[in-house]
Amino acid sequence: MHKNQQVILHAIPDGLPVAGDFAEQEAMLPALGAGQLLLETQFLSLDPYMRGQMSGRHMSGALAIGEVLRGETVSRVLQSNDDSFQIGDIVRAFTGWQSHAVIDAGAAMPIGFTDLPPSLALGVLGMPGLTAYAALTRLGSPKTGDTLLVSSAAGTVGATVGQIGRILGCRTVGIAGGPDKCFWLTGPAKFNAAIDYKNEAVRDGIKRTCPAKSAPLGGVDIYYDNVGGDILAAAMENMAHGARVILCGLMDQYNSSTVPAGPNPGLIIKARAHVHGMVVYDHEDARPDMIKKISGWIRSGDFIYHEDVTPGLENAPSAFMRLMRGETFGKVIVAVN
Ligand SMILES: NC(=O)c1ccc[n+]([C@@H]2O[C@H](COP(=O)([O-])OP(=O)(O)OC[C@H]3O[C@@H](n4cnc5c(N)ncnc54)[C@H](OP(=O)(O)O)[C@@H]3O)[C@@H](O)[C@H]2O)c1
Fold first, then answer.
1. Looking at the predicted structure, is the pLDDT value of residue 190 above 80?
2. What are phi and psi of 67, to 5 degrees?
């Protein structure tokens, strides 16, 4: 019988996690049932989302005190009661922070490759790689010549985004903390430029590396956000016409017990919502259809409206002031003649 080393959540972290938030324990493994596998953990993935699980803010649910921390692993099959797995097979599974696990064979997945280190199944060929690849290619619509800005660029997701972007023809700019990470970005990782946000004001860095294409807009065609907070704000202040912003992660707030003021990007991520920039001038072609539809609904009584009419041009300023004070009701109109 194998002893199972486990790490459990001992306390919910207050700010940055500390050693006392975790505890180790030894547990007995259950006997192997029909269709089950005994796994020995080879590699455990540690990911930022786990901090959200600890504080109960992650969409996958909260961890209870005393629960084994969750996580994805690459594991070796030690015993198999299922014909589709042999002893020695390497699989991917959500077995958590423990040395061994007994799981149903259906919960074990092949890692999908044999000629590269299996640990990559937790990184660039795993969930973070998929995150980067799918979000950039499906949501970012990268085009040759686009300027792609990505935060936490030296992290797995960020570095994968930047390199895929470069391969697809984008100019790539990474935001990362410290000279070592930035040298790595512009050196081996072949980013076009890097912003060390710990040593340069991020707004200056974005203007330096993503020059505006048409004032007053900025030069960022795609912003891939892994952090939220002020870096997200700075990037969005520098969007080019038709920019695509991908909200992926919230490194800036995972360790905080409060959610920052303003719309929380976390809500957008959780709902998989699409956020678009609307300018009515782009939709003039829809005007005839709009008039036809709404006027028809007015005539049929299905649609009502309210107007706030002020007589006399001399009263326009006071009407405008009422408008700006929130004292008007409906469409504000000045009846001039
Ligand atoms: N939406 C999804 O489905 C999905 C899936 C996977 C991952 N994610 C998210 O993607 C992001 C990146 O994931 P990853 O696994 O590749 O991790 P990662 O980028 O390696 O995350 C750690 C890095 O985040 C940066 N960081 C930490 N605090 C920061 C702050 N306050 N401001 C700016 N940067 C900060 C640090 O890099 P610096 O030294 O450069 O600051 C740190 O090394 C995470 O937010 C993760 O939650 C989302």
1. yes
2. -80, 145
